[in-house]
Design brief:
heterodimer, A: 286 residues, Rossmann fold, seven-stranded mixed β-sheet, 10 helices, 32% helix, B: mainly alpha, Methane Monooxygenase Hydroxylase, Chain G, domain 1, elongated
Chain lengths: 286, 237
């Protein structure tokens, strides 16, 4: 597990403004622990895109039932890491990994793992809403359809539950057969969330889910994340510091493929251990 | 520390810090004026202390406005947020210190006519100078980011409280000896209390400096020695 660095006082710290990859301090780790244990454990996990090393021996664990934010400047590896949790990176050529990721205690890269089954246990939401060119109803129940479920009552129930869970039901209940593409951006994203949770996943992976949305749609989704808390383990990649503070329990700050600091959100944004974390959250670089 | 990516943010923080510097300078000047007025019954100096108060109040409003605007615009975090919040708190304490110095000056003018008949105790000047030292040190600690100095100021408030208590007793004794001095003495009691309050505000500033530098709040278990509120008026104990 990551070492805990001793806390340095929060006065302005001196140090190199930009270090080479050999000059990184030990990871500071001080997360809030949930009551339900770990959902995902990452151990010395590295990833290469061809010859380029994108993730460097990351080690930390995502607590079950809590919301964890991944933050860091562009290119730091946060989206790459997110896509490793449900092995979406398998779909990219030339990707090589080392180390271990455990979900619920099992190594997800083990050859015995059914990748499709793994992906079903994790819902994923992307930056750009991607509703399928089908009706709203068909979008939501898609995960069940491909599972072979045909019973109309079951599907109806799942659609309602999913849309209610995504706080979209009232807006679309009278037009479930209309095309999903006719919805606004914010509604489309909530539809994608409904679709992601319709298959009852355990984990929700969100890659900048609000970046393309207006402030009110963003607020609705943040409200939604608040409601999803406890029933799901949520991992959210975000560029918006205030959003990370608002929605997350723990925050992981990454830089150049390394985990620099992982801790309870209040501390990471109020009094981080590392100067680099402080510089990033206060807008001094990145 | 590295500059912000948006340079205007740095400029705004600098501006707020400069405002605190200026306010601190002016308030120290007011306090010096009050000390001089007491020590030499200098009515002119007392008048200038009173006149200096309005610009200090305006500075406080200015700093507060700038701080609020910076919070709204920049959504500061971590050390930046503490810097801004601390500036607002320190500006408040400095404004109160200025008011207290002005109040001392006013009372000095009120008693200046009787200063030949009755004597201002030497302890008053000692108390005032000790308080001045606390204020100067804590402002220095804030400017230089010196947590040790801030803690020293925080802990030294008990000296001032002790000085105040003994001065209080001394004045009670004089007033009991000669009832004609009661009016004079009453004003001086207020002056002494105001000085002790300035000392308290300096301690508040020390707590704020500590918070700014470490993000920790000092516990309220600071040594307190002001017992003037418990003195028995009959026995003077």
């Amino acid at each position: 597990m990551a070492q805990t660095a001793t806390r340095t006082p929060a006065s302005p710290r001196s140090g190199p403004a930009a270090a080479t990859s050999d000059e990184f301090e030990a990871t500071a780790s001080h997360p809030k622990r949930g009551t339900k244990g770990e959902a995902i454990r990452i151990e010395k996990f590295s990833l290469w895109y061809g010859a380029a090393k994108a993730l460097h021996e990351n080690t930390f664990s995502i607590e079950r039932g809590l919301v964890t934010a991944l933050i860091g400047p562009s290119g730091c590896g946060k989206s790459t890491l997110l896509r490793c949790f449900n092995r979406m990176n398998d779909l990219i050529d030339n990707v090589r990994i080392e180390g271990r990721i455990e979900f619920d205690g099992l190594d997800i890269y083990s050859p015995r793992v059914d990748v499709i089954a793994l992906r079903k246990r994790m819902g994923m939401v992307f930056q750009k809403p991607n509703p399928f060119p089908m009706s709203i109803y068909e979008n939501v129940i898609y995960p069940l359809r491909i599972d072979g479920i045909r019973d109309r009552a079951t599907l109806d129930q799942a659609a309602e539950a999913g849309l209610k869970g995504a706080a979209l039901w009232n807006e679309v209940k009278d037009r479930l057969d209309e095309s999903a593409l006719g919805l606004s951006g914010g509604q489309q994203q909530r539809l994608c969330i409904a679709r992601a949770i319709a298959g009852s996943p355990e984990v929700l992976l969100m890659d900048e889910p609000c970046s393309a949305l207006d402030p009110i749609a963003t607020a609705k989704i943040e409200e939604l994340i608040d409601e999803l808390r406890e029933h799901y383990t949520v991992v959210i990649v975000t560029h918006n510091m205030q959003q990370a503070i608002r929605v997350s329990d723990n925050t992981a700050f990454m830089y150049l493929g390394r985990l620099i600091e992982y801790g309870d959100t209040k501390t990471v944004f109020n009094n981080p251990v590392h100067q680099r974390t402080n510089d990033y959250v206060t807008g001094r670089f990145g | 520390m590295t500059k912000h990516t948006v340079l205007a943010f740095d400029a705004e923080l600098k501006d707020i810090a400069a405002g605190i510097e200026e306010m601190g300078r002016r308030v120290l000047e007011q306090l010096d004026g009050a000390i001089e007025a007491i020590a030499h019954v200098n009515v002119d100096r007392a008048q200038s202390v009173i006149a200096a108060d309005r610009p200090v109040d305006e500075l406080q409003h200015d700093i507060e406005q700038k701080a609020v605007l910076t919070i709204a615009k920049r959504q500061p975090l971590a050390s930046d947020l503490r810097d801004i919040v601390s500036a607002m708190r320190i500006a408040n304490d400095l404004e109160r210190i200025g008011d207290l110095a002005k109040n001392i000056a006013k009372r000095l003018i009120a008693i200046s006519g009787n200063a030949t008949t009755f004597k201002i105790p030497a302890g008053m000047t000692s108390l005032a100078e000790r308080v001045r030292e606390q204020l100067a040190e804590v402002l220095d600690a804030n400017r230089r980011g010196d947590d040790k100095l801030a803690l020293k100021v925080w802990q030294s408030d008990s000296d001032i409280d002790a000085l105040h208590t003994s001065l209080f007793r001394e004045m009670l004794t004089y007033m009991m000896e000669d009832p004609r001095s009661i009016g004079f003495g009453a004003h001086l009691l207020f002056c002494a209390k105001n000085l002790e309050r300035i000392g308290d505000h300096a301690t508040n500033i020390a707590e704020t400096v500590h918070y700014r530098l470490t993000s920790e709040q000092l516990s309220s278990e600071r040594p307190k020695q002001d017992q003037s509120s418990a003195i028995n008026p009959k026995s003077g104990d």
